[in-house]
Amino acid sequence: QVRLLESGGGLAQAGGSLRLSCKVSGTKVKFDALTWHRKTPGAKKRELVAAITTSGRTNYGDFVQGRFTISRDSAKNSIYLQMNDLKPEDTAVYYCNGLVYRTSDDYWGQGTQVTVSS
């Protein structure tokens, strides 16, 4: 069984920063990419925040606009999301996701709440 466990969410003021972590544990699985998604209040679907591939290539949602940085520590089986210049509209539950190598399978964490006050 593969587990993805997010941490680091909480309350921040507009303009502030938070760093999210996602720890992968359990059965060893090769991932094509590890990603962060979020679900904002009232949204029907999660949206991509950031992704990092096994080769280290990164991709971000348009709304990020240089404020967030995704990174990984392979030795710790973890990825991170450094979020700077937070805005109230960044308030959401943030989820870690792993896309299994060369399959359509993926795994999700349980999510961590980020709340940004104005």
Radius of gyration: 14 Å
H and E string? EEEEEEEEEEE
Helicity range of the residues?
under 10%
Span between termini? 40 Å
Q: Provide the residue-averaged pLDDT.
A: 96
Query: Which spans have pLDDT < 50 for at least 5 consecutive residues?
Result: none
Structural class: mainly beta
Question: How many extended strands?
Answer: 11
Count of DSSP H/I helices: 0
Biggest beta sheet attributes: 7 strands, mixed
Strand content: over 45%
Dominant shape:
globular
How would you describe this protein?
- With about 120 residues, the protein is mainly β.
- About 0% of the residues lie in helices and about 60% in strands.
- It has no helices and 11 strands.
- Strands 2, 4, 5, 6, 9, 10 and 11 form a 7-stranded mixed beta sheet that branches.
- It starts with a strand and ends with a strand.
- The mean pLDDT is about 95.
Please summarize what this structure is:
The protein is built from no helices and 11 strands.
What attributes characterize this protein structure?
single chain, mainly beta, four-stranded antiparallel β-sheet
Topology:
Blueprint: E1 2-7, E2 10-13, E3 18-26, E4 31-39, E5 47-53, E6 58-60, E7 68-73, E8 78-83, E9 92-100, E10 106-108, E11 112-117
Parallel strand pairs: 2-11
Antiparallel strand pairs: 1-3, 3-8, 4-5, 4-9, 5-6, 7-8, 9-10, 9-11
